[in-house]
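> call design_seq(struct)
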């Protein structure tokens, strides 16, 4: 019986290690595609067991990444689709950089995400409808980019069916207007679209 328990523990540790290595691989893959003139990512060493000792990365008690804090880091380059593999990520804070390209649809897999702060970058293309999968999200700040199209209905639905409190998409190249209807008792705090758009 003791050997069976020991075998189960070894398997559990192996699975946890693989998950942590996967998260480290994802973050290292992103690092290789970023220009980092200030060496902010210098501690991101892929030879370590997991990324929990890296600066700007926070993990939970299971050594799984829950937070990436890279605001005002002087970084440029893309967001990569593999970021959608960070299953326990709660905070993706990559504001005030020069991050460019589209927002990967795979970010819609981050169902534990509470805060998505991608504002003041150079992101372009549409807001992915898959972000409507983020039912735990409280804050989505995408303002100050070059996003186009309209705000997907699935994202607007996070206001009524999810926990979303702040949705800021102002200072982009979006079309359409979001109307807020307080008669339904929505729990929304702020929806900011375009300062030139009609009042909501």
């Amino acid at each position: 019986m003791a050997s069976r328990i020991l075998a189960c523990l070894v398997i559990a540790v192996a699975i946890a290690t693989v998950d942590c290595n996967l998260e480290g691989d994802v973050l290292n893959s992103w690092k290789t595609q970023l220009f980092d003139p200030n060496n902010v990512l210098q501690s991101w060493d892929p030879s370590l067991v997991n990324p929990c000792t890296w600066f700007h990365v926070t993990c939970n008690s299971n050594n799984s990444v829950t937070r990436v804090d890279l605001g005002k880091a002087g970084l440029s380059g893309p967001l990569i689709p593999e970021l959608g593999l960070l299953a326990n990520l709660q905070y993706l804070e990559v504001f005030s950089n020069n991050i460019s390209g589209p927002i990967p649809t795979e970010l819609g897999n981050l169902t534990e995400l509470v805060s998505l702060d991608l504002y003041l970058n150079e992101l372009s293309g549409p807001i992915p409808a898959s972000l409507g999968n983020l039912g735990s999200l409280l804050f989505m700040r995408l303002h100050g980019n070059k996003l186009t199209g309209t705000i997907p209905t699935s994202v607007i639905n996070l206001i009524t069916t999810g926990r979303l409190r702040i949705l800021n998409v102002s200072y982009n190249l979006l079309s359409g207007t979001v109307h807020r209807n307080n008669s339904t008792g929505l729990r929304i705090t702020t929806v900011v679209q375009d300062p030139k758009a009609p009042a909501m």
